[in-house]
């Protein structure tokens, strides 16, 4: 049986328990995809996050993470 995962665009994960509400993520986002609401960041509806990682790098409390999918190449074949 083959289980297929939906190919959805990944989004940054925000940890509310670590967020201090600095707003740095929203300041550095090149797409203006983030906004601060009640002192916490959220993705603006309808704005495309390009998954650039700027918000993750800018967060002073490590509250934002972007996970990456690791794709393995063919096994047993050397390119050289
Ligand atoms: S990953 Fe980039 S585009 Fe997406 S919310 Fe963070 S800073 Fe904005």
Describe the structure concisely.
The protein has 80 residues and is an alpha+beta fold. The chain has 2 helices and 4 strands. Helices cover 12% and strands 15% of the residues.
Task: Characterize the structure shown.
- By secondary structure, this protein is α+β, with helices and mostly antiparallel strands.
- The protein has a domain at 20-65: 2-Layer Sandwich (Alpha-Beta Plaits).
- The protein is 12% helix and 15% strand.
- It has two helices and four strands, in the order βαββαβ.
- The strands form two sheets. Strands 1-4 form a two-stranded antiparallel sheet. Strands 2-3 form a two-stranded antiparallel ribbon.
- A hairpin with a 2-residue loop joins β2 (34-37) and β3 (40-43).
- It is elongated, with a radius of gyration of 17 Å.
- It starts with 12 loop residues before the first strand and ends in a 15-residue tail after the last strand.
- The model has no long low-confidence stretch (mean pLDDT 86).
- Residues 12, 29, 31, 33-34, 49-55 line the site of iron/sulfur cluster (SF4).
- The site of iron/sulfur cluster has 12 residues, from α2.
């Amino acid at each position: 049986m083959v289980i297929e995962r939906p190919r959805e665009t990944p989004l940054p994960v925000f940890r509310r328990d670590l967020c201090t509400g600095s707003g740095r993520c929203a300041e550095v986002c090149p797409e203006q995809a983030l906004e601060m609401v009640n002192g916490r960041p959220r993705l603006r509806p309808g704005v495309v996050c390009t998954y650039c990682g700027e918000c993750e790098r800018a967060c002073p409390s490590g509250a934002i993470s972007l996970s990456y999918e690791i794709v393995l190449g063919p096994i047993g074949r050397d390119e050289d």
